[in-house]
Amino acid sequence: MQASPLFGILATVVFGSSALAQSNMLVTEEAMVKASDPGIEIYVRNKRPANMTTFRPEQTIIYVHGATYPSETAFDLKLDGQSWMEYIASRGYDVWLLDLRGYGKSTRPAEMADKPEANSPIVTGETAVKDIGSVVDYVLQRRNIARVNLLGWSWGTTLMATYTVRNASKVERLVLYAPAWIRQTASLVQAGPGKLGAYRTVTRAQAKERWYTGVADDKKADLIPAGWFDAWADATFATDPVGAAMTPPVLRAPNGVVQDSQQYFGDGKAYYDPAKITVPTLLVHAEWDKDTPPTWRKRSSRFW
């Protein structure tokens, strides 16, 4: 969540040396993009330098979130005065984020107004990739460019990689941050017991517990700066007013990702073929990540 210098390095290495700081003044715009299905709109946010007047593929980035939380509070939450999104934009990039349907400010499918057990899992990878495609086409048209850079986090890496396999001509470069792959350990996504319903709920306590999974006890006290978790949780749970009104407050998240995980990565099957990714790609793993540990990649070397 911190606007780490790592992302300045990533910007230069992955997207090119044009990532030099240009202006601290940023422009922010928001829009609702029509999805491929009637009645569904996808929320997008854009930040870019105020003095940016021309747009190029290598300077244009679209970010998508993971399985549970929306993009804006992972990518554009000010902590210590600046968000990750702003950090990249201030270095000369035209930066976009999107919330998949069922997340954040995007349309909530009708099933989310019912009890979760009343419907089957919603927003599978196939649906999510279509939403990404709608936003990519929107950005390409708005900027009159042919390609964009894609940045996915966690489940978002599966989605962005799948989109790239199918639409290589529209992708300049690809960054997979905490990429999911064929599992050798149990998933940390808490879907609850019994039949998999349309969506799941997550409490603040569960979110915090997952944050610390895999962290040594003697490292936990200094891992997150004081107040940062609460700032993130306050902003994140506020994106779901219905869930926030429950006792205890929860965040609702579609279960399509859980169904996909069980059917593919959890069953030893690849969701997409990495060999079909033909654009420059960077994989970033965290040492203590127990949900998508780096050891998976070593054990799956025939794919990567």
UniProtKB/TrEMBL annotation:
One of its GO terms (molecular function) is hydrolase activity. PANTHER family: HYDROLASE, PUTATIVE (AFU_ORTHOLOGUE AFUA_2G14860)-RELATED (PTHR43798:SF33), MONOACYLGLYCEROL LIPASE (PTHR43798). SUPFAM superfamilies: alpha/beta-Hydrolases (SSF53474). It comes from Bradyrhizobium zhengyangense. One of its GO terms (cellular component) is membrane. This is Alpha/beta hydrolase. Residues 84-182 form the AB hydrolase-1 domain. InterPro entries: AB_hydrolase_1, AB_hydrolase_fold, AB_hydrolase_sf. The keyword Iron does not apply. Pfam families: Abhydrolase_1 (PF00561). Keywords: Hydrolase, Signal. Residues 1-21 form the signal peptide. The lineage of its organism: Bacteria, Pseudomonadati, Pseudomonadota, Alphaproteobacteria, Hyphomicrobiales. The keyword Hydrolase applies. It comes from the Bacteria.
